[in-house]
Design brief:
binds magnesium ion; binds adenosine-5'-triphosphate; eight-stranded mixed sheet; four-stranded antiparallel sheet; globular; 12 strands; 11 helices; about 20% strand; single chain; alpha/beta; binds iron/sulfur cluster
Protein backbone atom coordinates (compact mmCIF):
# COMPACT_ATOMS: atom_id res chain seq x y z
CA UNK A 1 0.00 0.00 0.00
CA UNK A 2 1.47 3.40 -0.93
CA UNK A 3 1.97 5.96 1.85
CA UNK A 4 -0.25 8.43 0.01
CA UNK A 5 -2.92 7.63 -2.52
CA UNK A 6 -4.93 10.42 -4.14
CA UNK A 7 -7.86 9.58 -6.41
CA UNK A 8 -9.71 12.05 -8.65
CA UNK A 9 -8.96 15.06 -6.45
CA UNK A 10 -10.60 18.37 -7.38
CA UNK A 11 -10.22 21.86 -5.91
CA UNK A 12 -12.05 24.91 -7.28
CA UNK A 13 -11.97 28.60 -6.46
CA UNK A 14 -14.94 30.92 -7.02
CA UNK A 15 -18.29 29.95 -8.47
CA UNK A 16 -20.47 30.29 -11.57
CA UNK A 17 -18.69 31.67 -14.63
CA UNK A 18 -15.73 32.69 -12.46
CA UNK A 19 -15.21 29.19 -11.19
CA UNK A 20 -11.62 28.16 -11.59
CA UNK A 21 -10.86 24.45 -11.43
CA UNK A 22 -7.32 24.74 -10.05
CA UNK A 23 -7.04 20.97 -9.59
CA UNK A 24 -9.38 19.00 -11.80
CA UNK A 25 -9.42 15.26 -11.22
CA UNK A 26 -5.85 14.39 -10.27
CA UNK A 27 -4.79 10.94 -9.11
CA UNK A 28 -1.35 10.14 -7.76
CA UNK A 29 0.55 7.89 -5.39
CA UNK A 30 3.60 8.46 -3.24
CA UNK A 31 5.37 5.43 -1.80
CA UNK A 32 7.25 5.37 1.51
CA UNK A 33 10.63 7.01 1.08
CA UNK A 34 9.78 8.08 -2.46
CA UNK A 35 10.20 11.54 -4.01
CA UNK A 36 7.44 12.46 -6.44
CA UNK A 37 7.79 15.78 -8.25
CA UNK A 38 4.98 17.97 -9.56
CA UNK A 39 6.12 20.19 -12.40
CA UNK A 40 4.49 22.64 -14.78
CA UNK A 41 4.22 26.33 -15.53
CA UNK A 42 3.08 28.96 -13.09
CA UNK A 43 -0.64 28.68 -12.38
CA UNK A 44 -1.07 25.03 -13.41
CA UNK A 45 -2.22 24.04 -9.91
CA UNK A 46 0.90 22.52 -8.31
CA UNK A 47 0.72 24.41 -5.01
CA UNK A 48 -3.04 23.98 -4.76
CA UNK A 49 -2.62 20.23 -5.21
CA UNK A 50 0.25 20.08 -2.71
CA UNK A 51 -1.75 21.97 -0.09
CA UNK A 52 -4.98 20.08 -0.77
CA UNK A 53 -3.21 16.76 -0.21
CA UNK A 54 -2.43 17.98 3.32
CA UNK A 55 -6.03 19.23 3.73
CA UNK A 56 -4.84 22.85 3.73
CA UNK A 57 -7.32 23.62 0.90
CA UNK A 58 -11.00 22.71 0.81
CA UNK A 59 -11.41 19.54 -1.22
CA UNK A 60 -14.29 19.57 -3.69
CA UNK A 61 -14.18 15.88 -4.54
CA UNK A 62 -11.88 12.92 -4.47
CA UNK A 63 -10.10 10.67 -2.01
CA UNK A 64 -6.86 11.22 -0.12
CA UNK A 65 -5.63 8.10 1.71
CA UNK A 66 -2.64 8.62 3.95
CA UNK A 67 -1.23 5.45 5.48
CA UNK A 68 -4.67 3.85 5.45
CA UNK A 69 -6.57 6.88 6.77
CA UNK A 70 -9.03 8.79 4.57
CA UNK A 71 -7.97 12.43 5.10
CA UNK A 72 -11.01 13.92 3.35
CA UNK A 73 -13.43 12.42 5.84
CA UNK A 74 -11.30 13.30 8.86
CA UNK A 75 -12.58 15.75 11.50
CA UNK A 76 -10.51 18.71 12.72
CA UNK A 77 -9.37 16.99 15.90
CA UNK A 78 -8.17 13.80 14.22
CA UNK A 79 -6.51 15.84 11.50
CA UNK A 80 -4.61 17.86 14.09
CA UNK A 81 -3.32 14.65 15.66
CA UNK A 82 -2.10 13.47 12.27
CA UNK A 83 -0.44 16.82 11.39
CA UNK A 84 3.02 16.02 12.77
CA UNK A 85 3.26 13.23 10.17
CA UNK A 86 2.26 15.52 7.28
CA UNK A 87 4.43 18.59 6.88
CA UNK A 88 5.13 21.32 4.33
CA UNK A 89 8.08 23.54 3.40
CA UNK A 90 7.20 26.72 1.51
CA UNK A 91 9.10 28.77 -1.05
CA UNK A 92 9.27 31.83 1.19
CA UNK A 93 10.59 30.80 4.59
CA UNK A 94 10.32 34.29 6.08
CA UNK A 95 6.60 34.46 5.32
CA UNK A 96 6.03 31.01 6.80
CA UNK A 97 7.85 31.59 10.11
CA UNK A 98 6.27 33.49 12.99
CA UNK A 99 8.38 36.68 13.40
CA UNK A 100 7.52 36.95 17.09
CA UNK A 101 8.80 33.52 18.08
CA UNK A 102 12.43 32.49 18.40
CA UNK A 103 13.41 29.57 16.21
CA UNK A 104 13.57 27.38 19.30
CA UNK A 105 9.98 28.28 20.19
CA UNK A 106 8.77 27.74 16.61
CA UNK A 107 10.31 24.28 16.43
CA UNK A 108 8.90 23.32 19.82
CA UNK A 109 5.28 23.97 18.76
CA UNK A 110 4.66 20.71 16.82
CA UNK A 111 6.40 18.76 19.60
CA UNK A 112 4.15 20.31 22.23
CA UNK A 113 1.14 19.30 20.09
CA UNK A 114 2.44 15.74 20.28
CA UNK A 115 2.53 16.01 24.09
CA UNK A 116 6.33 15.87 24.32
CA UNK A 117 7.73 17.30 27.59
CA UNK A 118 9.89 20.40 27.90
CA UNK A 119 13.28 18.72 28.38
CA UNK A 120 12.85 16.37 25.42
CA UNK A 121 11.55 19.24 23.28
CA UNK A 122 14.68 21.25 24.00
CA UNK A 123 16.91 18.32 23.17
CA UNK A 124 15.13 17.48 19.92
CA UNK A 125 15.06 21.10 18.74
CA UNK A 126 18.81 21.44 19.34
CA UNK A 127 19.53 18.15 17.53
CA UNK A 128 17.31 19.10 14.60
CA UNK A 129 18.94 22.51 14.15
CA UNK A 130 22.37 20.84 14.16
CA UNK A 131 21.07 18.28 11.65
CA UNK A 132 20.21 21.03 9.13
CA UNK A 133 23.60 22.67 9.63
CA UNK A 134 22.70 25.69 11.77
CA UNK A 135 25.15 26.91 14.42
CA UNK A 136 24.70 26.25 18.13
CA UNK A 137 22.61 29.02 19.70
CA UNK A 138 20.37 29.43 16.61
CA UNK A 139 17.37 28.44 18.72
CA UNK A 140 17.53 31.80 20.55
CA UNK A 141 17.40 33.86 17.34
CA UNK A 142 14.40 35.27 15.44
CA UNK A 143 13.67 34.56 11.74
CA UNK A 144 14.91 37.98 10.53
CA UNK A 145 18.34 37.28 12.04
CA UNK A 146 19.10 34.57 9.46
CA UNK A 147 20.11 34.70 5.77
CA UNK A 148 17.68 33.37 3.14
CA UNK A 149 19.44 30.02 2.90
CA UNK A 150 19.63 29.67 6.69
CA UNK A 151 15.94 30.50 6.97
CA UNK A 152 15.11 27.72 4.56
CA UNK A 153 17.18 25.40 6.78
CA UNK A 154 15.04 26.57 9.71
CA UNK A 155 11.83 25.87 7.76
CA UNK A 156 13.11 22.39 6.90
CA UNK A 157 14.02 21.79 10.55
CA UNK A 158 10.55 22.87 11.62
CA UNK A 159 8.94 20.48 9.13
CA UNK A 160 11.13 17.54 10.17
CA UNK A 161 11.31 17.96 13.94
CA UNK A 162 8.01 16.10 14.41
CA UNK A 163 9.39 13.12 12.42
CA UNK A 164 6.89 13.26 9.55
CA UNK A 165 6.38 10.54 6.94
CA UNK A 166 5.46 12.91 4.13
CA UNK A 167 6.75 16.42 3.42
CA UNK A 168 5.31 18.61 0.67
CA UNK A 169 8.14 20.84 -0.55
CA UNK A 170 6.62 23.78 -2.44
CA UNK A 171 9.39 25.37 -4.52
CA UNK A 172 11.76 25.16 -1.55
CA UNK A 173 14.75 26.57 -3.43
CA UNK A 174 13.15 28.97 -5.93
CA UNK A 175 13.77 32.07 -3.81
CA UNK A 176 17.44 31.23 -3.19
CA UNK A 177 20.68 32.06 -5.03
CA UNK A 178 21.93 29.29 -7.33
CA UNK A 179 24.84 28.29 -5.05
CA UNK A 180 22.54 28.12 -2.02
CA UNK A 181 19.94 26.16 -4.05
CA UNK A 182 22.39 23.29 -4.49
CA UNK A 183 23.19 23.23 -0.76
CA UNK A 184 19.53 23.09 0.22
CA UNK A 185 18.72 20.41 -2.37
CA UNK A 186 21.63 18.30 -1.09
CA UNK A 187 20.38 18.80 2.45
CA UNK A 188 16.86 17.65 1.48
CA UNK A 189 18.28 14.56 -0.25
CA UNK A 190 20.43 13.65 2.79
CA UNK A 191 17.58 14.18 5.26
CA UNK A 192 15.25 12.08 3.15
CA UNK A 193 17.64 9.15 3.38
CA UNK A 194 18.34 9.64 7.07
CA UNK A 195 14.72 10.07 8.13
CA UNK A 196 13.12 7.74 5.57
CA UNK A 197 10.93 10.59 4.29
CA UNK A 198 8.66 10.76 1.28
CA UNK A 199 8.55 14.07 -0.58
CA UNK A 200 5.90 15.57 -2.82
CA UNK A 201 8.20 18.08 -4.44
CA UNK A 202 6.60 21.01 -6.28
CA UNK A 203 8.71 22.90 -8.82
CA UNK A 204 8.25 24.89 -12.00
CA UNK A 205 11.80 23.90 -12.90
CA UNK A 206 12.32 20.46 -14.44
CA UNK A 207 16.07 20.80 -14.09
CA UNK A 208 15.74 21.07 -10.30
CA UNK A 209 13.71 17.89 -9.97
CA UNK A 210 15.71 15.82 -12.44
CA UNK A 211 18.22 14.54 -9.93
CA UNK A 212 16.10 14.33 -6.83
CA UNK A 213 12.78 12.86 -8.02
CA UNK A 214 12.07 9.17 -8.38
CA UNK A 215 8.96 9.97 -10.39
CA UNK A 216 7.66 13.12 -12.05
CA UNK A 217 4.09 14.26 -12.68
CA UNK A 218 3.66 16.99 -15.27
CA UNK A 219 0.64 19.25 -14.72
CA UNK A 220 -1.16 21.49 -17.18
CA UNK A 221 -4.23 23.57 -16.29
CA UNK A 222 -5.18 21.54 -13.25
CA UNK A 223 -4.59 18.10 -14.76
CA UNK A 224 -1.75 15.61 -14.89
CA UNK A 225 -0.73 15.20 -18.54
CA UNK A 226 2.18 12.82 -18.05
CA UNK A 227 3.68 10.79 -15.22
CA UNK A 228 6.76 8.63 -15.39
CA UNK A 229 9.91 7.58 -13.55
CA UNK A 230 12.27 10.54 -13.68
CA UNK A 231 14.75 9.09 -16.17
CA UNK A 232 12.02 7.77 -18.48
CA UNK A 233 10.47 11.22 -18.58
CA UNK A 234 13.78 12.76 -19.64
CA UNK A 235 14.81 10.07 -22.09
CA UNK A 236 11.35 9.42 -23.58
CA UNK A 237 8.93 12.27 -22.92
CA UNK A 238 5.63 11.40 -24.61
CA UNK A 239 3.46 14.48 -24.15
CA UNK A 240 4.15 17.51 -26.36
CA UNK A 241 3.95 19.71 -23.26
CA UNK A 242 6.61 17.67 -21.44
CA UNK A 243 8.79 17.83 -24.54
CA UNK A 244 8.38 21.59 -24.67
CA UNK A 245 9.28 21.92 -20.97
CA UNK A 246 12.41 19.83 -21.53
CA UNK A 247 13.34 21.86 -24.62
CA UNK A 248 13.05 25.01 -22.52
CA UNK A 249 15.65 23.80 -19.99
CA UNK A 250 19.03 25.38 -20.72
CA UNK A 251 21.51 22.58 -21.33
CA UNK A 252 25.13 23.49 -22.09
CA UNK A 253 25.86 19.92 -23.28
CA UNK A 254 23.18 20.14 -25.98
CA UNK A 255 25.01 22.93 -27.79
CA UNK A 256 21.81 24.64 -28.81
CA UNK A 257 19.89 27.35 -27.04
CA UNK A 258 16.85 26.63 -24.90
CA UNK A 259 13.54 26.89 -26.78
CA UNK A 260 10.98 28.85 -24.77
CA UNK A 261 7.50 27.37 -24.66
CA UNK A 262 5.37 28.97 -27.36
CA UNK A 263 2.04 30.66 -26.70
CA UNK A 264 0.38 31.84 -23.51
CA UNK A 265 -1.39 29.75 -20.93
CA UNK A 266 -5.15 29.94 -21.71
CA UNK A 267 -7.56 31.46 -19.19
CA UNK A 268 -7.91 28.70 -16.59
CA UNK A 269 -11.56 29.73 -16.03
CA UNK A 270 -12.29 28.85 -19.62
CA UNK A 271 -9.90 26.09 -20.74
CA UNK A 272 -9.92 24.78 -24.33
CA UNK A 273 -12.38 21.98 -25.14
CA UNK A 274 -11.10 18.45 -25.66
CA UNK A 275 -7.40 18.45 -24.88
CA UNK A 276 -6.54 21.47 -22.77
CA UNK A 277 -3.10 21.75 -24.35
CA UNK A 278 -4.39 21.96 -27.92
CA UNK A 279 -4.11 25.78 -28.27
CA UNK A 280 -0.35 25.43 -27.86
CA UNK A 281 0.21 21.96 -29.27
CA UNK A 282 2.33 21.73 -32.44
CA UNK A 283 0.78 18.39 -33.46
CA UNK A 284 -2.89 18.95 -32.58
CA UNK A 285 -5.52 17.37 -34.85
CA UNK A 286 -9.28 17.99 -35.21
CA UNK A 287 -9.94 15.16 -32.76
CA UNK A 288 -8.06 17.07 -30.05
CA UNK A 289 -10.75 19.79 -29.99
CA UNK A 290 -13.53 17.20 -29.64
CA UNK A 291 -12.22 14.57 -27.28
CA UNK A 292 -10.53 14.81 -23.92
CA UNK A 293 -7.61 12.38 -24.27
CA UNK A 294 -7.70 11.15 -20.64
CA UNK A 295 -4.68 9.49 -19.08
CA UNK A 296 -3.49 6.17 -20.52
CA UNK A 297 -0.66 3.97 -19.33
CA UNK A 298 1.68 3.44 -22.27
CA UNK A 299 4.21 1.27 -20.47
CA UNK A 300 4.39 0.24 -16.81
CA UNK A 301 4.58 3.40 -14.70
CA UNK A 302 4.52 5.72 -17.72
CA UNK A 303 1.14 7.35 -18.38
CA UNK A 304 0.20 10.17 -20.72
CA UNK A 305 -2.87 12.16 -21.74
CA UNK A 306 -2.45 12.60 -25.50
CA UNK A 307 -4.38 11.02 -28.39
CA UNK A 308 -1.22 10.69 -30.45
CA UNK A 309 1.10 9.21 -27.83
CA UNK A 310 3.27 7.24 -28.12
CA UNK A 311 3.50 7.59 -31.90
CA UNK A 312 2.94 11.35 -32.36
CA UNK A 313 6.27 12.67 -33.50
CA UNK A 314 7.35 16.09 -32.39
CA UNK A 315 10.28 16.30 -34.78
CA UNK A 316 8.49 15.39 -38.00
CA UNK A 317 5.64 17.82 -37.49
CA UNK A 318 5.62 21.47 -38.40
CA UNK A 319 5.42 23.59 -35.27
CA UNK A 320 2.28 25.59 -35.58
CA UNK A 321 -0.43 24.99 -33.05
CA UNK A 322 -4.12 25.47 -33.56
CA UNK A 323 -5.97 28.74 -32.96
N1 LIG B 1 -6.85 31.34 -3.06
C1 LIG B 1 -7.10 31.40 -4.37
N2 LIG B 1 -8.20 32.01 -4.85
C2 LIG B 1 -8.46 32.04 -6.17
N3 LIG B 1 -7.68 31.50 -7.12
C3 LIG B 1 -6.57 30.88 -6.70
C4 LIG B 1 -6.21 30.80 -5.32
N4 LIG B 1 -5.04 30.11 -5.21
C5 LIG B 1 -4.69 29.78 -6.47
N5 LIG B 1 -5.59 30.24 -7.37
C6 LIG B 1 -5.56 30.03 -8.83
O1 LIG B 1 -5.51 28.63 -9.05
C7 LIG B 1 -4.62 28.32 -10.12
C8 LIG B 1 -3.56 27.40 -9.62
O2 LIG B 1 -2.74 28.12 -8.71
P1 LIG B 1 -1.48 27.46 -7.99
O3 LIG B 1 -0.94 28.45 -7.03
O4 LIG B 1 -1.86 26.13 -7.47
O5 LIG B 1 -0.49 27.28 -9.21
P2 LIG B 1 1.06 26.87 -9.22
O6 LIG B 1 1.19 25.82 -10.24
O7 LIG B 1 1.51 26.56 -7.84
O8 LIG B 1 1.75 28.20 -9.75
P3 LIG B 1 3.17 28.88 -9.33
O9 LIG B 1 4.23 28.11 -10.09
O10 LIG B 1 3.03 30.26 -9.82
O11 LIG B 1 3.31 28.77 -7.85
C9 LIG B 1 -4.12 29.66 -10.63
O12 LIG B 1 -4.87 30.03 -11.75
C10 LIG B 1 -4.32 30.60 -9.48
O13 LIG B 1 -4.53 31.91 -9.94
S1 LIG C 1 -4.22 15.26 -27.47
FE1 LIG C 1 -3.85 16.48 -29.30
S2 LIG C 1 -3.64 18.62 -28.61
FE2 LIG C 1 -3.44 17.27 -26.84
S3 LIG C 1 -1.27 17.00 -26.62
FE3 LIG C 1 -2.01 15.27 -27.84
S4 LIG C 1 -1.81 15.93 -29.94
FE4 LIG C 1 -1.59 17.76 -28.70
MG1 LIG D 1 2.92 27.42 -6.56
Amino acid sequence: MPLLSVVDLAVSYGSGRDRLRAVDGVSLEVGRGETVALVGESGCGKSTLGRAVLRLEPVERGRIDFDGTDLVGLGAHALKRLRPRLQIVFQDPLGSLNPRLTIGETLAVPLAVQGIGRAERHERVGAMLAEVGLPVGSDRLYPHEFSGGQRQRVAIARALVSKPDLVVCDEPVSALDLSVQAQILNLLVRLKREFGLAYLFVSHDLAVVRHIADRVLVMYLGRVVESAPSEALWSRPLHPYTRALIEAVPDPARRRPAVPLAGDLPDPRNPPSGCRFRSRCPIATARCAEEDPGVREIEPGHAVACHLAPTGSFETTVRGGTP
